[in-house]
Design a protein that fits this description.
Elements (H helix, E strand, L loop, with lengths): L12 H11 L2 H10 L2 H9 L2 E3 L2 E3 L1 H7 L3 H9 L10 E4 L3 E4 L3 H8 L2 H9 L14 H8 L2 H9 L14 H8 L2 H9 L14 H7 L3 H9 L13 H7 L3 H7 L7 H16 L7 H15 L27 H5 L5 H16 L7 H13 L3 H17 L5 H16 L6 H23 L7 H28 L12 H7 L11 H6 L8 H6 L5 H9 L14 H5 L9 H13 L21 H11 L3 H11 L22 E6 L9 H13 L5 E8 L5 H9 L2 E6 L21 E6 L2 H12 L3 E8 L2 E2 L4 E2 L17 H13 L2 E4 L2 H11 L6 E3 L21 E5 L5 H4 L4 H11 L4 E6 L5 H10 L7 E4 L5 H10 L2 E4 L7 H9 L4 E4 L3 H6 L9 E2 L4 H13 L2 H18 L2 H17 L2
Parallel strand pairs: 5-6, 5-8, 6-7, 8-9, 9-12, 12-13, 14-15, 14-17, 15-16, 17-18, 18-19
Antiparallel strand pairs: 1-2, 3-4, 10-11
């Protein structure tokens, strides 16, 4: 939505000039610049403005958007024609750094703007920060007329982008025949090679562009080898471009040797390519190659002799048609023949050989042929190592393979695991040295790639060390090369990008084991793996960025009865190895404070010299006023060594029936549960959660507690007043006013120590607090504005120990209302709902353009919430293919239709749907529409707008809504805000949204979602809230 202007008045001259340039408002632009003095005008023309993903000058954005008159005006006022953008987004979602106005106009296809800029002497070969030129951009997008204009003005046809090839290479790769022909005719070098050794002919042939290949060959292009020893013809074979190969081998310049190699490599590739696999076709092409060899029987072209390789079952490659005929019908023999042929043609030190080896090995493993799989994979690993290519994926494959063999109770040599581990250590050493000694040739992207590879190697090392004790049961008595390899690896201080050491990972029950086979046979925490690490010299008190030691992590484990011994063994092992239980993390918590069970506390207390009965006595004293039925010592706080903080979130459901409230509750609870210092309890009415919901909650570290039904209380929410007898929480969190009453009751009955009230909405028109979350499935009617309701709600906030306003607008209003009590309100703006962020939208627009009007209200109130604006906007568009979609119009439907009719919108342009009652219904609704609009300023509608944003749906929001207040802090957010009640402005914005290519529109929505997620990061906000909760309890 970045192309849509923000309609609020921009007081900053720089912003005024930028927006007028971006939007082509030439009259405004001229007036703005005319009114500025020389210094301010220069600043406005040269300053870069952050606008979503764009960070650029007025001239570059005007050129990018094709605003010719705006470009002329800016040049008239002496805008720097060579000024570079920080970044600007071009077509095909490409972000370009250091782009000039000329490059932006070229890439966007604005020929008239290019002419003006060249006439004003713009540098025709000026490069971007990524070293690209305007001509290269024209070649990429196939802009023939612009390419012609650039060359006429002196553009260098052979300018390259570093090692990424010339403009001719780019045009060949993307199939722009007209540009290719033009560049050749104007002297472009057809044999120039890029950093990988590829020529323009390589680029054209590997993409199957036959006409381009013919054009290049007819003008004398050579068949050069690239760095993988692939000629353009062999590259076509290697890419399974069958039509290209068949066409090319008939070319007069194609020699017999080249023809044979192409046919054999094509057959060999098809035999082991999952996307092109056809065993009969593979044999046929291999046979055609052999027939070519013996076409002249008196002088056959024989194959080079190669020694048999164990990886290929010591098979010898067929030398004659008779030998080859023996393979027909034997699929495995043809597979091996293909692999042998590939290695003969490409060479044994060529990484192009490896992918088919990996694929064929995986197929063999699936069929239980592990020995052969190991031979192939090990062969591939050696080749990639020789070629200095990343090997983490191949090592991960071995870890999974070993685990699979263990699950099948197969016997195999431990030496093999040691060899793989040694390969891993060597690779880690090599990459670490490269990072430490990197020179200017190692760029930012390569550094990131190396860091990612190092993390994969770290996890792979964990998998191998977990598997090792399962192969040999006596860890202490086994060598693993006398632990030399482990010690060598530990000295490299391997950590994840989150800062966890191997010991943290091995001691933590929640460490993700990504490989299915490893996960099926290995479980964390793993005492034997920790033993190996400690013997290898790992620092038992190493801390991660949160200050947690491995002991902090280990005590959070809540074992089943069968796992109790594992917990005891783990803690005793760490303590015996010198783990310090007194160390505090950044939240001020010791390991004792983080204990999830009494067993953990007892073990630590035995080692620290504190009698466990003393701890329990202290806990009992602190909660002396708890109800008689509560077991002594059940509750804990961070002030005692007795345990972690028990925080109960009051809930109505987990995900059904659907409400936006469900997403908020779930997301909030899940992020709370990530904290080792908390035990998160989800208190819900009995039978409100399915077994599947319970399993999901438990898997996320959330304990489900159910309150049983009580006679005389028909509303299940009221059952929460009667939790199980042993329920006690240090903190109870209420996420709306009804739950707030429950929290108040629990506090008054001494079932909790502290109470947090969260506030979702404010009725600013009446001045009353509603605390009620309206969402799509809430049909309870209008907000109460009675004085009693107002006093009750204010009183709940006054008596709460901590008040949280969900969003800056609500937090500010609450701060003003509670200021007289000197009560601080915490601002927590809900971030993206992860449950909706995986949605996929159709890539093509339909015939009609559907606009969802976001609301939680019923039809009787719709027109009080500015929904007449939507109706009038559709009327002004005068296009019957625009449709409005409303939800929840249950009563007075005829009156609703009448009011729409009064706005001159046709009834057939109205789609009325029921409120979604499930997540599936909501996702279906979001997929059916093309755009969402939030017209209501009522706070209750904000969460459903957040649902739409989370789903990646393009949207607009009215400027005075709480949701718009959140969007304003997001770089791309202002483009989705319409600060006006003028239906014409809304109509123009809707039209512009439809005119934007759907793929770009969805990409902009995705970028907005990503920026919103970064701005309102759940983890960071919940971390801050948890800190305040702990401070509150410590100060009690």
């Amino acid at each position: 939505m970045g192309s849509v202007p923000s309609h609020g008045l921009a007081k900053n001259p720089t912003t005024q000039v930028y927006q007028a340039s971006r939007d082509g408002r030439t009259s405004d632009l001229d007036n703005f610049l005319k009114q500025l003095d020389g210094r301010k005008r220069k600043s406005a023309l040269e300053t870069k403005t952050k606008d979503g993903d764009d960070f650029t000058t007025p001239l570059v954005i005007a050129a990018r958007n094709g605003n010719l008159d705006a470009v002329k005006i800016l040049l008239k006022y002496n805008a720097d024609i060579e000024a570079r953008a920080g970044t600007v987004k071009l077509q095909d979602k490409i972000d370009v750094a250091g782009c000039t106005a000329l490059c932006a106009a070229v890439a966007s296809g604005h020929l008239d703007v290019v002419k003006v800029l060249l006439k004003q002497n713009a540098k025709v070969d000026e490069r971007t920060l990524t070293n690209s030129t305007p001509l290269r951009a024209a070649a990429y997008f196939g802009r023939l007329e612009i390419a012609r204009l650039l060359v006429e003005n002196g553009a260098d046809v052979d300018a390259s982008k570093g090692g990424d090839g010339t403009s001719l290479s780019v045009a060949c790769f993307h199939g722009h025949t007209g540009v290719v022909k033009f560049l050749i005719e104007h002297g472009a070098n057809m044999n120039v090679q890029d950093i990988d050794g590829n020529t323009p002919l390589h680029d054209g042939m590997r993409k199957g562009h036959i006409e381009i290949a013919d054009k290049l060959l007819s003008h004398g292009a050579l068949q050069l080898q690239n760095k993988h020893r692939l000629t353009p013809l062999l590259m076509a074979s290697n890419c399974c471009e069958i039509e290209m190969v068949e066409h090319f081998i008939k070319h007069p310049k194609c020699t017999k040797e080249h023809r044979i190699d192409a046919l054999e490599l094509l057959g060999a590739t098809i035999a082991n390519d999952p996307d092109a696999y056809d065993i009969d076709a593979a044999f046929w092409y291999i046979k055609r190659g052999m027939e070519e060899r013996f076409q002249d029987k008196s002088h056959p072209l024989l194959k080079r002799h190669r020694e048999p390789n164990e990886a290929y079952q010591n098979r010898k490659e067929s030398q004659t048609l008779e030998e080859l005929a023996l393979l027909e019908g034997d699929d495995n023999a043809i597979h091996m023949e293909g692999l042998i042929i590939r290695e003969r043609i490409l060479g044994s030190d060529n990484s192009e050989v490896c992918s088919p080896l990996n694929y064929r090995g995986a197929v063999l493993a699936d069929s239980g042929n592990f020995d052969h799989c190991i031979s192939l994979w090990y062969h591939a690993l050696k080749i990639r190592t020789r070629c200095n290519k990343p090997v983490a994926m191949y090592l991960e494959n071995f870890a999974g393979l070993f685990a699979d063999m263990i699950s099948r109770k197969l016997v195999w040599e431990i030496n093999l695991l040691q060899e793989i581990f040694e390969q891993l250590v060597s690779e880690y050493e090599k990459l670490t040295e490269k990072l430490q000694n990197r020179n200017l040739q190692v760029g930012y992207e390569e550094v990131k790639a190396i860091e990612q590879e190092l993390e994969r190697l770290t996890y792979c090392a964990l998998y191998l060390l977990m598997i090792y004790p399962k192969v040999t049961h006596a860890v202490e008595n086994q060598k693993l090369s006398r632990l030399h390899l482990v010690q060598r690896f530990i000295r490299l201080v391997p950590r994840t990008r989150d800062g966890d050491t191997l010991l943290h990972l091995a001691a933590c029950y929640s460490t993700a084991i990504k490989d299915f086979h490893v996960r099926s046979v290995c479980k964390l925490p793993c005492v034997k793996t920790v033993t190996v690490l400690l013997l290898g010299g790992v620092d038992v008190n190493a801390v991660n960025p949160k200050g947690d030691t491995p002991l902090h992590v280990a005590v959070t484990f809540k074992p089943s009865p069968k796992e109790a011994d594992t917990l005891k063994a783990m803690l005793e092992l760490l303590l015996d190895s010198g783990a310090d239980p007194k160390l505090k993390n950044i939240y001020g918590l010791t390991a004792m404070d983080c204990c999830a069970t009494d067993d953990s506390r007892r073990i630590l207390s035995d080692r620290s010299g504190v009698d466990i009965t003393t701890i329990e006595s202290r806990a009992q004293t602190d909660f002396l006023h708890s109800s008689p039925q509560d077991p002594v010592g059940q509750s804990t706080t961070i002030n005692q060594s007795s345990g972690i903080v028990k925080l109960a979130v009051l809930g109505k459901d987990w995900c059904f029936p659907f409400t936006a409230f469900s997403y908020l509750t779930k997301e909030f609870a899940v992020h709370l549960a990530k904290h080792h210092g908390l035990e998160v309890i989800f208190l819900v009415p009995d039978k409100s959660l399915s077994e599947e919901d319970k399993k999901e909650a438990n898997s996320r570290g959330i304990t489900i507690v159910e309150a049983k039904a009580h006679p005389g209380f028909p509303d299940p929410v009221d059952w929460l007043c009667f939790p199980p007898n042993d329920f006690f929480a240090d903190v109870v969190v209420a996420l709306d006013d009804n739950l707030g009453k429950i929290a108040y009751v629990l506090s008054e009955h001494l079932r909790s120590r502290k109470r947090i009230q969260m506030v979702h909405s404010l009725n600013t028109e009446t001045g009353t607090f509603s605390f009620r979350l309206y969402c799509l499935s809430n049909e309870s009617g209008k907000l109460s504005s009675s004085r009693r309701k107002h006093q009750t709600n204010i009183g709940m906030c006054e008596r709460a120990d901590l008040v949280v306003g969900l969003g800056s607008k609500i937090a500010d209003e609450l701060n003003a209302s509670l200021r007289y009590l000197n009560k601080q309100v915490v601002n927590l703006t809900p971030g993206i709902f992860s449950e909706l962020s995986d949605m996929t939208h159709a890539k093509e627009d339909g015939r009609n353009f559907r606009i969802l009007v976001l609301s939680g209200n019923e039809s009787a109130e719709l027109f009080h919430d500015r929904f007449h604006i939507a109706a009038k906007a559709i009327s002004l568009l005068r296009d019957k293919t625009f449709y409005l979609v409303f939800t929840g119009v249950k009563k007075d439907k005829s009156d609703f239709l009448k009011k729409c009719s009064e706005c001159n919108v046709a009834e057939q342009q109205l789609i009325i749907k029921n409120f979604p009652v499930s997540e599936k219904d909501l996702k279906r609704l979001f997929c059916e529409v093309d755009l969402a609009i939030l017209l209501s300023a009522e706070d209750e509608c904000r969460l459903i707008a957040l649902c739409a944003l989370s789903a990646g749906l393009p949207l607009y929001a009215c400027g005075d809504s709480a949701f718009a207040a959140s969007l304003k802090e997001v770089p791309l957010g202002t483009a989705s805000i319409i600060d006006s009640e003028d239906a014409k402005i809304w109509a123009d914005s809707i039209r512009k949204a439809r005119e934007t290519d759907r793929e770009i529109r969805l990409e902009q929505a995705t970028m907005l979602r990503s920026q919103f997620e970064e701005t309102y990061n759940w983890d960071k906000q919940v971390d801050s809230l948890v800190k305040k909760i702990l401070d509150m309890l410590q100060g009690d």
